[in-house]
């Protein structure tokens, strides 16, 4: 089994290399935890999107701010602009299971 720190190193390296040449990476998790979404990973992901989360702590882990815990779900999101702490609320397309 691969150690979490080893995986973090791979993700960070991929993010650094991709960012340098203009490739965007999409990382997703169902349960954000500080031990998984580390500061090193976040520092290499300048743009972040947060959908509804269960608690303020989860919002802070993803976006470094509260707010995602109050979203409505079904595509309601907060977008963190690169290089700022400005959150923009947006609506994405929601596709439920019956449409898949």
Automatic annotation (TrEMBL):
<keyword id="KW-0547">Nucleotide-binding</keyword>
<dbReference type="Pfam" id="PF01580">
    <property type="entry name" value="FtsK_SpoIIIE"/>
</dbReference>
<dbReference type="InterPro" id="IPR002543">
    <property type="entry name" value="FtsK_dom"/>
</dbReference>
<dbReference type="InterPro" id="IPR050206">
    <property type="entry name" value="FtsK/SpoIIIE/SftA"/>
</dbReference>
<protein>
    <recommendedName>
        <fullName>FtsK domain-containing protein</fullName>
    </recommendedName>
</protein>
<dbReference type="GO" id="GO:0003677">
    <property type="term" value="F:DNA binding"/>
</dbReference>
<feature type="domain" description="FtsK">
    <location>
        <begin position="1"/>
        <end position="33"/>
    </location>
</feature>
<keyword id="KW-0067">ATP-binding</keyword>
<dbReference type="InterPro" id="IPR027417">
    <property type="entry name" value="P-loop_NTPase"/>
</dbReference>
<dbReference type="GO" id="GO:0005524">
    <property type="term" value="F:ATP binding"/>
</dbReference>
